[in-house]
Amino acid sequence: MPYFPVDDAAHSHPKFMAATNAALGLWVRVGSWVAQQLTDGHVPGSVAKLYGTPAQAKSLVSARLWHAAGHDCPRCPQPRPGDYYMHDYPDHGSKSRAEIQELRRRSAESSRRHRDRQAPKPPTPPSDEQLGLDDAEPEPPAARRAQIRPDWAPSREDVHAAQSARTAAGMPLLTADQVDAVTAKFVRRQLDDGAVAVAWGGRWREWAERERPAPQPSPGGTVVPMPVRNPFPSGTDARVNEHLALLAQMQAKEAQQ
């Protein structure tokens, strides 16, 4: 911030002794305004009238602290008519407009460099060689866990694995109707529990391996068949035939052993 300097010996300077105290107050006050506005010593007449009286301005001109238009001082520029100029303004330690603007420019540049040094540096991204992008295959997207679909059905591999496990455990094979019934109960249970999974085949196989179907009717006995409540029936002969064909294959294999 610019300032208007006053020498510590100004109180006894002949020019100060020649001016009135009121006029010297005007000189200091207007000098502060000139320094703030960077006028390089020029005092508009309107500013002189704002802060002082014509008599005070005349006292400063008489003491040669100010110059009016048409003055004879060879060291000071001529003001416009009605304005004034502060005698030897740059020689009393007051910086010029150009000097103040250069100081402000340097200060702003220094502040900018300081902020740049203090700002966090962004991490340097690794090169393609560090990441191994030339050789690495893109990773597949991760599978999402979701609830089971109401029409979900086990695959042929799921049924075969479950039947094989039942055979190994000494349990009877499931018929096609029993496979459908197991599937219906399994789907209903998962929906009721709100379970989620990436795949359901493994869970279904564990369920089917533990299934204990109702005993077959003995010769001569009468068994009233209880319909299996299946909210999601297969509904096609092709699926029933598929289960029966698979069951026949496994039974034939067992007979050969």
Major sheet: size, sense and barrel closure?
3 strands, antiparallel
Structural class: mainly alpha
- Gyration radius, to the nearest Å? 52 Å
Shape designation: rod-shaped
Task: Give the rounded overall mean pLDDT.
Answer: 81
User: Helical stretch count?
Assistant: 10
Order of helices and strands: HHEHHEEHHEHHEHH
Q: For this entry, what is the oligomeric state of its chains? A: single chain
**Distance N to C terminus:** 105 Å
- The side-by-side strand order for the widest beta sheet comes to 1-3-2
Helical amount: 40-55%
Question: Low-confidence parts, pLDDT < 50 over ≥5 residues?
Answer: 221-236
Strand content: under 5%
β-strand number: 5
Structure notes:
By secondary structure, the chain is mainly alpha-helical. The protein has ten helices and five strands. The strands form two sheets. Strands 1-3-2 form a three-stranded antiparallel beta sheet. A two-stranded antiparallel sheet has the order 4-5. It is rod-shaped, with a radius of gyration of 52 Å. The chain starts with 13 loop residues before the first helix and ends with a helix. About 6% of the residues have low confidence.
What key attributes describe this structure?
257 residues, mainly alpha, three-stranded antiparallel sheet, two-stranded antiparallel sheet, 10 helices, 5 strands, 5% strand, rod-shaped
